Automatic annotation (TrEMBL):
Its main location: membrane. This is Efflux transporter outer membrane subunit. Residues 1-20 form the signal peptide. InterPro entries: MdtP/NodT-like, OMP_efflux. Pfam families: OEP. Keywords: Lipoprotein, Membrane, Palmitate, Signal, Transmembrane, Transmembrane beta strand. It comes from Sphingomonas canadensis. It is a lipid-anchor. Belongs to the outer membrane factor (OMF) (TC 1.B.17) family. It is found in: Cell membrane. The keyword Metal-binding does not apply.
Amino acid sequence: MSRRTAALLLSLALPLAGCASGPDYRPRGAAELGVPGSYSVTAPAQEREDLTRWWDRFDDPQLSSLIARGAEGNLDVARAVARLRQARESLVQARGQLLPGVTASGGYSRNLPVNGGGQAGGSFSIGADASWQADLFGGNRRGVEAAQAGYQASGFDYAQVLTAIQAEIARNYVLARAAQAQLANARDALAIQDDNLQIAQWRVQAGLVSSLDVEAARAQRAQTAAGIPSLEASYNGFVSRLGVLTGQAPGALKPELEAVRPIPRGPAAVGVGIPADTLRQRPDVRSAERSLAAATANIGVAAAQLYPALSIGGSIDAGAASIGNVFDVITGRLFASVAQTIFDGGRLRSQVRAREAAAEDAFLAYKSTVLTALEDIENAIVALQAARTREGEYRVALDAASTQALLARDQYRAGLTDFTTLNQAEAQLLSARNGLVQAQSDGATALIQLYLALGGGWDSSVTPEAPPINTGSTPDGN
């Protein structure tokens, strides 16, 4: 092909380079995603709060410290960062498709005479080749668009992993503190039951009651003692889980958490805003939206394959017998080619239809993620309200059970009541104490779940990006 013909093709390609095949991405509105104007459950009529550091609202420095260590050391978070870096490199590779490729080469050859024939000599050569595929119908640009959306989706996936780990650390911390409180209740009850057993033995020795009271006291004490190892195992499991969540060995945090501390409470109310806020705040919703954008762009990538492809290239070569004269004679050539698929059995059009179906699937996944997010929020609101109501009732029950147990204990010592009444009163007291602990634990975990459902734990005003790669080491780690 002549240079004039190649120039003509290039002049025709440049105006077409502004075209882009396939549909342009269109953000979906709240109504199209089925988002209602308000929640179906009673929620605090407050604007949504800044929940970037929601754990600080529990006013527990140890909890804040564990969450900070989890963000730095958790292995799932580290893997999410690695995936984010992979997505960034995919974007770099996609952008590279828009630019020409240039290669250079150099060589030296030498003739050696054989059996005295010919004359020894050598030659040097230098050359360069360049090639560029004109993006006539925007397939490469759609590829960059898809890679950009995929990179952003990976950033939101990282944020989702981070927020889930933060909530899991907080939940296990609350459960560990609840197990400590239940252990304390069981040990306090065991001490009282030891005292009751001693009193029953004295009364039997004095002939005031039968040995039935002693056996009943022994049975009650044994049942309470039997529950302690189970509580200790639960506590150990929660602490071990905290160690792994912070990127450490299971037993690393046992000395630190050994001291008994109360269950963290958190604020009395949380401003949840309106359902439409979920589209901006939840990282999984943002990720699903970016996945839809990537799927839409991929339709254009497939559609561009239906149209002609123009490739333009050229080469420059120089050679001489000595290195100093290598640039004295330079030759070059320019070439261009146009390719168009004539028949492929419908393969390319099938690829377009497949990408369109993938985009439809991405939209449905996006909508499902939005509706699931709203479900999570409403369930957490109801769970928090129920736990707070139960806590209030258990406080009343504990006050009444404490008074009842105190009176029953005094009356049994004075011989005014039987051991069955005392036994029932002590059982009700332990049940009320554990019920209050469970309600407090449920309230704290429901509050954590609400913070997670609202998308707290990251700055939703920015798109997470991969941290810079450390260039101070070579690929082999040296």
